[in-house]
């Protein structure tokens, strides 16, 4: 059976209680169930990993990278300066989607840049827990498409230089 890695970073283990006006009332367990529901018809399972420490997230990517068909990654605040997480994701070959519950670009200025996003197959922001469902659907789509990288080694995007 194919496995999708659901990777959640710092503070996401307390979803539902932490600033519900920003992050909503869904718990991480609710999100895990929603993602599992989205991928079940394809015969996929979900391996959910949440850590508050960056090193633990890096370890999870290295441990599960070769045994998964894709990943949904919410790096939390590590999007801002999670360089070792970025490096681990750079070596992760399957497609993966970065997710943020809140619209990070509508919030404080320091949240406006992600060191992670340029490596992702796609990014979903500001749609609450539903964003995880959309990321799961995107992974199903990407897995069905011919293998490709969104970025080539020379900086081209989609076959042309930006």
UniProtKB/TrEMBL annotation:
It comes from the Bacteria. GO terms for molecular function: 3-dehydroquinate dehydratase activity. It catalyses: 3-dehydroquinate = 3-dehydroshikimate + H2O. The record marks 18 as: Transition state stabilizer. Pathway: Metabolic intermediate biosynthesis; chorismate biosynthesis; chorismate from D-erythrose 4-phosphate and phosphoenolpyruvate: step 3/7. Substrate binds at residues 74, 87, 101-102, 111. Its EC number is 4.2.1.10. One of its GO terms (biological process) is chorismate biosynthetic process. InterPro entries: DHquinase_II, DHquinase_II_CS, DHquinase_II_sf. The active site is at residues 23, 100. Keywords: Amino-acid biosynthesis, Aromatic amino acid biosynthesis, Lyase. It is an enzyme of class 4 (lyase). It holds the Pfam family DHquinase_II. The keyword Lyase applies. Homododecamer. Catalyzes a trans-dehydration via an enolate intermediate. HAMAP family: AroQ. Belongs to the type-II 3-dehydroquinase family. This is 3-dehydroquinate dehydratase. It comes from Streptomyces spectabilis.
């Amino acid at each position: 059976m194919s496995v999708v890695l659901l990777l959640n970073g710092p503070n996401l283990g307390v979803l539902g209680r932490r600033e519900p006006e920003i992050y909503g009332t869904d718990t991480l367990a609710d999100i895990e169930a929603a993602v599992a529901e989205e991928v079940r018809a394809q015969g996929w399972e979900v391996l959910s990993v949440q850590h508050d420490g960056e090193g633990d997230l890096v370890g999870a990517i290295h441990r599960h990278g070769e045994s998964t068909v894709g990943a949904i990654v919410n790096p939390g605040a590590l999007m801002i300066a999670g360089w070792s997480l970025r490096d681990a994701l750079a070596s992760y070959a399957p497609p993966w989607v970065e997710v943020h519950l809140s619209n990070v670009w509508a919030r404080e200025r320091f949240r406006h840049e992600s060191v992670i996003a340029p490596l992702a197959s796609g990014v979903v922001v500001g749609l609450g827990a539903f964003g995880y469902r959309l990321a799961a659907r995107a992974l199903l789509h990407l897995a069905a498409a011919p293998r490709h990288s969104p970025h080539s080694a020379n900086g081209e995007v989609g076959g042309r230089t930006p």
